[in-house]
Amino acid sequence: MAATMSSPVCSGNGKTRRFERNNGQPGNPFSHRVPGQKIAIIPSFTLESGIEMRNVPVAYMSWGKLSVGGSNAMIVCHALSGSADISDWWGPLLGPGKAFDTDTFFVICMNSLGSPYGTASPVTVKNGNLADGWYGADFPSTTIRDDVRIHQLILDDLGVNQVAAVIGGSMGGMLTLEWAYFGKDYVRCIVPVATASHQSAWGIGWGEAQRHAIYSDARYKDGRYSFHDPPVAGLEAARMAALLTYRSRDSLESRFGRDKSSKNAEAANRDEKSLEMPIQSNGNTDEKSLHQLNGNHKRKEQSPNNGMCVPVQNFFHESRSAFPPKDSSFAAQSYLRYQAKKFSNRFDSNCYIALTHKLDSHDLSRGRADTIPEALSMIQQPTLVLGIRSDGLYTLSEQEQIARCVPNAKLREIMSHDGHDAFLIESHQLNWLIIGFLFDNLGDIMQTPVID
What we know:
About 30% of the residues lie in helices and about 15% in strands. A 9-stranded mixed beta sheet has the order 1-2-3-5-4-6-7-8-9, sandwiched between helices. The chain is α/β, with parallel strands linked by helices. The longest helix has 15 residues, at about 145-160.
């Protein structure tokens, strides 16, 4: 059964919306863990690769109100493992008087293609048709440019005529830079944080190592695993490798050293709750749709090429660890294991693979210019580039290049020894740096900040 159409509704400025809206997503066990989001269905979308997708879901959340002229939108772009719920990962920046001022801006975050949290991905059904089953390993390759193009369709549908600012960190910073190419008359200013103009060989290498951790898990089965028996060990190993790129040597040393007790690890894991998206479950999984989906694939369940099709009672894999029962010797080990296990309970391996491939494809100069500096020189908007000296993944030198080559850019440093994750940790610094920049460039719509 194809997705059903709902009646057209009006956007905040009275414009009739063209796209169907859903609050749930049959068959996807992850989208229901982000309560309050809306899912728009794009009837047809052609990827940069030329592949056409049909009935494409795009999840988003918004805060504040769109102005009558549709000119006060602020786009916030999430990182690789994030969802459309800004409050889960950049909460301290969201609210009245803060960087993402909900009294001033219509703040919106849209979920990227390939993410498990509502937008089309390996865990959504093919072309919106329950009878076709999940995409799984057959999900097509998508790019950062695909994300901004499909997200722009959502903005159009909501009645947004101009974007006041685009802000994002890490992968979200890549989207932020791509948004600039819509032009300064559409996007007024941008704030890329701890990101890159192109994925470096260093980043590509780390992504490949993480993917191979998943491929090496016998349960991966070329991506045709079932939800109740996913490649947990591989995904957890990939996450541990990623975590080491998100922090710095000094950060881990100061936090754990050679401590063999679990106290430091437990304290660190409590601290991580503000950084890891605490994906919630509101218990609203559409069991009727799941029964229908699995019923349509009853005969196919025996086929190794349809491993995604499982009985409803086994739809979610049991919470288990890929690690041996022996206690870890060091606090640093306990920290990595805890974080990896938590991640494997809220993320999908095929989605992880799809998103890391998306990162690898990122290159602002592709089809645009002969060199990265030339591509950056085409960005016309006022730009605040935020970098972290201790970031070993997207280095300060990469931020310096962006700021040097974008004509109207300035670089500010986030002071931290915590590495790449400082863009999530140092919320107080980010608040004031971003607010100051917005006052300088959007003074016509900014209000007085009231940060505690």
